[in-house]
Write a structure and sequence with these properties.
This protein is an alpha+beta fold. It contains 3 helices and 11 strands, in the order ααββββββαβββββ.
């Protein structure tokens, strides 16, 4: 019985000596070699931005026509403001507008693509440390409910192609 304890200690000492040898062999100075990749913390590369809508409560104007019998199509006008505090520039890639009735996402979103945004505003660049305002006047098709709020989904891209999305919801009234 005494030899089993001695054998276990001998094995433990041998394993410890092997681990120390391997660890010492891995102690190589790489400071003079070129770096093949670098990694930054997510906080260093994530832009800090806020989005808002002015006015903070929007009104809808009915657009009457033959197409809509029960509820007329609706239009509104507002400014979408992007305030970028981060250290990298962003580009507005896509904007979606959805009327909400208070219980669920009421209608299919009206989506404006990067091509349409560029045609409307020229450049969609938002420089770091700045604020940019984008004026919109979306027109929604025939409705089947009374909307209570408007959701604006904004997709921004940085220069590396990383996506940054946010949603702003404002009441109607």
């Amino acid at each position: 019985m005494g030899s089993r304890g001695w054998l276990a200690n001998k094995f433990g000492i041998g394993a410890l000596a092997g681990a120390l040898t391997v660890a010492a062999a891995c102690d190589v100075d790489y400071s003079k070699r070129p770096h093949l990749a670098s990694f930054a913390s997510p906080l260093a590369v994530t832009p800090f931005f806020t989005t808002s809508i002015v006015p903070q409560r929007i009104g809808l104007t009915p657009v009457f026509g033959i197409r809509c019998l029960a509820f007329p199509s609706l239009t509104t006008r507002f400014d979408l403001i992007v305030d970028l505090e981060g250290s990298s520039d962003l580009f507005m890639q896509q904007v979606g507008f959805t009327l909400l009735d208070g219980t669920h996402r009421g209608s299919t979103p009206l989506v404006i693509s990067a091509f349409d945004l560029s045609a409307r505003f020229g450049s969609t660049l938002i420089r770091s440390g700045s604020r940019r305002s984008f004026g919109f006047d979306p027109q929604f098709g025939c409705g089947s409910f009374v909307p209570l709020s408007l959701a604006v989904d904004v997709l921004l891209l940085d220069r590396m192609g990383s996506r940054h999305a946010t949603t702003v919801v404002v009441p109607i009234g």
